[in-house]
Amino acid sequence: MNDKLDFMVYCMEYYKQDKKMTGAQTARLFSEYGVLDYIKSCYGALHTTPPKYIIEDIDGFILTRQSDRKEIN
Question: Are 25 and 15 in contact (CB under 8 A)?
Answer without folding.
Answer: no
